[in-house]
Design brief:
Strand order of the largest sheet: 1-6-5-2-4
Distance between the termini: 57 Å
Order of helices and strands: EHEHEEHEHEHEEHEHEHHHH
Strand content: 5-15%
Number of helices: 11
Number of strands: 10
Largest sheet: 5 strands, parallel
Shape: globular
Number of domains: 2
Helix content: 40-55%
Oligomer: single chain
Radius of gyration: 19 Å
Structural class: alpha/beta
Length: 276
């Protein structure tokens, strides 16, 4: 491994993906290559590889960063070297986005509603009803982990959500009459997965669990009842909505990790036998 431009393998990234350990993903494909591809890696944000000096100051210094190009060649390696010289704990993805696709890693379909990923220094803002329980915690987790790593979330009384979103230039969600809300028997989490083209079997399984807990159809998945109970318990423990989000993200990180294991058929089972 090059000591100047250390690599991150797709397998190692997959192990940490969609958790608090996930590096901040930065797509540094050439503008032409990025424009020609309708998708990017889930949770990634694109930046011009030839203008690193303009955007590196917006990157966190407390969190590792992984950059990727098409195949993991000179574009991402050069960007990685420039970031490391600026004090960023950066690595390049070995094999690039093509290796990620070959591994079956989650991808995100580009969308213009809202503009994602965030522009440098301008995070997307999402607004919903105060006192979140299930869908309104699951959606922020999904947005932060898979759609826009810089996203910010605001809470307001139900009657003020739309006005608050307009004032902040944000996107309202999980309220009637907006794009990302319940659609028939499906919840706002489903709407985000569908509209952003999030292709991931584990995420589809998690969506079913969330739907069952959020719409009182606990028969949809055996895990839905547990999610409902834990979510309500967290709400009783934490009165600050942003603190509740922080705690809830840990819960969804763990649940998504279990879904990945279940999809692979490697989920641990417990079968303690009571002595006769």
């Amino acid at each position: 491994m090059d000591t100047v431009t250390p690599a991150l393998s797709p397998t190692d990234l997959m192990q940490a993906f969609a958790s608090a350990r996930t590096p901040l993903l930065v797509d540094v494909r050439r503008a032409e290559a990025f424009a020609a591809d309708p998708t990017l890696m889930a949770g990634a944000t694109w930046r011009d590889p030839f203008k690193v000096a303009e955007w590196e100051k917006y990157l966190p210094r407390h969190r590792p960063v992984a950059v990727y190009c098409v195949h993991g060649h000179e574009i991402s390696r050069n960007a990685c070297s420039a970031l490391r010289a600026a004090g960023v704990d950066a690595r390049f993805l070995d094999g690039g986005i093509e290796a990620w696709r070959a591994l079956g890693g989650p991808t995100l379909r580009k969308s213009t509603q809202p503009v994602v990923p965030s522009a440098s220094g301008a995070p997307t803002i999402w607004v919903t009803r105060e006192r979140p329980k299930i869908d309104r915690i699951a959606c922020p987790w999904l947005i932060r982990r898979f759609i826009d790593p810089f996203a910010q979330f605001e809470f307001a009384p139900p009657a003020q959500v739309l006005a608050r979103a307009t004032a902040l230039g944000g996107t309202p969600y999980d309220v009637p009459g907006v794009t990302f809300t319940h659609r028939g028997d499906r919840c706002s989490f489903d709407a985000l997965v569908e509209d952003y083209g999030l292709a991931d079997a584990a995420l589809a399984r998690l969506a079913t669990i969330v739907r069952g807990a959020d719409t009182d159809r606990l028969d949809l998945a055996p895990e839905s009842a547990g999610l409902l109970a834990i979510s309500l318990g967290l709400g009783d423990q934490h009165r600050d909505d942003h603190e509740l989000l922080e705690r809830g993200f840990v819960m969804y990180d763990a649940l998504y990790a279990w879904c990945r294991s279940a999809v692979r058929g490697t989920a641990e089972r417990h079968n303690w036998k009571v002595p006769a």
